[in-house]
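Schema walk-through. Below, the input block comes first and the output block second. Nothing else is stored per chain. Lengths vary across the set, and this one has 388 residues.
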Amino acid sequence: MNFKQLASQYKTELLGNVVPFWMKNSRDEENGGYFTCLDRKGNVFDTDKFIWLQGREVWMFSTLYNRVEQRPEWLDMALHGADFLQKYGHDGNLNWYFSLTREGKPLVEPYNIFSDCFATMAFGQLFKATGREEYGTIARDTFENILKRSSNPKGRFTKTTPGTRPLKGFSLPMILCNLSLEIEHLLKPEMVEETIETVIQEVMEVFYQQDSGLILENVRPDGSFSDSFEGRLLNPGHAIEAMWFIMDLSERLNRPELALKATDIMLRTLKYGWDEQYGGIFYFMDIKGYPPQQLEWDQKLWWVHIETLISLIKGYRLTGNPECLDWFEKVHNYTWSHFADPEYGEWFGYLNRRGEVLLPLKGGKWKGCFHVPRGLLQVWKTLEKLDR
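--- output ---
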């Protein structure tokens, strides 16, 4: 495998194709913030603004500025979104809404904690780029809010009846693995250490099932298995993405055994989730092989495949496991031949099981300027390290 050539492919796609697509099409000059509902060619088809995606785009352009090159237009793009988020994104107490109108009027309440997570990432990275204390304060205070709410992330918006079937979800400990490193520069060392140890234990012990070697999306509060739709649910993309967060932590903590375990779980999940008939990775699965409740279970999604490429190449770099390279080649070939759009820039998000484009959009309510550019950046930088 030619690491230099591959690194160049990922870099060129990022800087020559994907980033220009968002620069050109997503900026709302009139009201601030970004449009994310973009069709194949980049035309806006809906003007609602989703806080996850506003925060992620601020983070992405700040990261490009911090990690690739200090281009003024990238910093300007990040500040453009941050200004809108500061004005309209939260309720005044840094509880971040889920969505807003184009002008910034709140549409959907802060019903879960993930808007807060992406706002923290955004302002933490922007603080690095600018050194402006107000951004650091927003990131730090929002992060503290997240920790306060972590035992009951949805608060009054929880749909389930308390006590009947209590479950806890994988999403929050998973994202905190990444978030704790993302804003480490703003936190007291003991807070970082404590958060990291807690989330590693949750991800690698509580949600990880020893007998299957797989990670569940939901477990009972004591970590035991719940034989229910939610309890049997596997989301291969989630588990695989979490494993590269753990790999980053293994480097940060100098604990190579963590990287070995993460690589093992990642490969096991990938083999379990791979569609032998049509190629690609299933979106949702049931650990007992029953029909999942999600009707979109067999779709092939952009983020699942991109996160898998990051995990595979990092796993190879940290462990030297040759299986990672074999799978990288297989997933790379599938991903580039099905999701990339050389004609109009950016990548498709949603394919049916056979690998045909299901929705020709480039952005929407869930897909924005995040997984594709972040993935291209991560893989490019990791391949460069391998080449060296």
